Amino acid sequence: MFVECLPFWPFLPEFQTRDEWEAAKANSGPSIIEVSYDDYLRSPHWIMTRAEALERDGHRCRLCSSTEKLQVHHSTYENLWDEDPLDLITLCDHCHAHVPRATGR
Q1: What is the pLDDT of residue 42?
Q2: Could you give the CA distance from residue 50 to residue 67 in angstroms, rounded to a whole number?
Q3: What is the C-alpha to C-alpha distance for residues 60 and 70, in angstroms, rounded to an integer?
Q4: Would 102 be classed as within a structural domain?
Q5: Among 9, 14, 37, 75, which residue has the fewest nearby CB atoms (within 10 Å)?
Q6: 38 domain residue, yes or no
Q7: 76-81: average pLDDT
Q8: Shortest CA distance to 82 belongs to which of 5, 2, 11?
Q9: Nearest to 75 by CA among 54, 45, 105
Q10: pLDDT of 92 higher than 90
Q11: E strands, the chain, where?
Q12: pTM tops 0.90, yes or no
């Protein structure tokens, strides 16, 4: 399974800073690279986005208030690499297993 995403500078070693990546992207137009979903979940972007969602939700499952085995669930995969915070919800492992699958993947 692969997801399409705009290039994200930490994965492109030829760019030392995000500003260099942004300038190159502006000059070349959007390009698409493929990154496996597992690689995406290990990306600096997702690690930071996940941490922000956990913090926002008080490190608790939004359905049962558990603090154990927390996951951040995407309600849609249409905005990978540019998630709207409203597309993410913190869930425990048990509740995550019972919510509908996200769309767009």
Answers
A1: 85
A2: 15
A3: 7
A4: no
A5: 14
A6: yes
A7: 82
A8: 5
A9: 105
A10: yes
A11: 2-5, 33-36, 70-74, 88-92
A12: no
